[in-house]
Design goal:
The chain is of the alpha+beta class. The protein is about 35% helix and about 15% strand. The protein has a single domain, classed as NADH Oxidase. The protein has helices at about 5-10, 25-35, 55-60, 95-110, 125-130, 165-170, and strands at about 45-50, 70-80, 115, 135-145. Bound molecules: flavin mononucleotide.
């Protein structure tokens, strides 16, 4: 599949099968996270793999959007490592870096037949407390992954309804 075919084919999976994700596929998805571009290549991503029953139960209790996934990546920014702007007060690249990391993971997963859904509907402080994250580790998003359930289809009929390019691009 070409990149464009892959990008157009992917959709958010919101119904997972119980089939475990093979370690080779986990490794490939984490490799995609490893090589993602980040500001100054500072690589602030810190990823917790929630795979034990205890960890998956814990995140299910805090987030309604896990959809039965057997594995959930908790993608965080290590704010001690992220790039900080000298001119823009308070700016850290952590969230942007981790968004690129998550996008890499999502697309690599899809290439391997593994579905995922980007999730931000959780309380950062609750998650921090539940997984005993230190203050410099900032939860950015969750990425539940797994094999799509047999009857899985895109949840929203508008998932691939996109604005025309002229609507959001302006040549100057
Ligand atoms: C920043 C961000 C946050 C999102 N948060 C959630 C979420 O909390 N729960 C959820 O089910 N989907 C969430 N999504 C998935 C989007 O709803 C989905 O990507 C969008 O509707 C397009 O559909 P598609 O991924 O199937 O193409 C999120 C996506 C992004 C990029």
């Amino acid at each position: 599949m070409s990149f464009m075919e892959l990008a157009k084919d992917r959709y958010s999976v919101r119904s997972f099968s119980e089939k475990p994700v093979e370690q080779e596929k986990m490794d490939a998805i984490l490799e995609a996270a490893r090589i993602a571009p980040t500001a100054v290549n500072y690589q602030p991503q810190r990823i917790y793999v929630l795979r034990s029953k205890g960890a998956v139960d814990l995140i299910n209790g805090l987030c309604k959007c896990i959809y039965g996934a057997p594995v959930v990546f908790l993608i965080c920014s290590d704010e001690r490592r992220s790039w900080k702007s000298r001119t823009e007060r308070g700016y850290s690249s952590g969230e942007m870096d981790c968004s690129i990391v998550c996008t890499h993971m999502m697309l690599e997963a899809w290439e391997l037949g593994i579905g995922s859904v980007w999730v931000r509907l959780f309380d950062v402080e609750e998650v921090r407390k539940a997984f005993s994250l230190p203050p410099h580790i900032r939860p950015i998003c969750l990425l539940p992954i797994g094999y799509p359930a047999a009857d899985c289809v895109p949840y929203a009929p508008w998932h691939n309804v996109y604005r025309p390019i002229e609507d959001f691009v302006e040549y100057l």
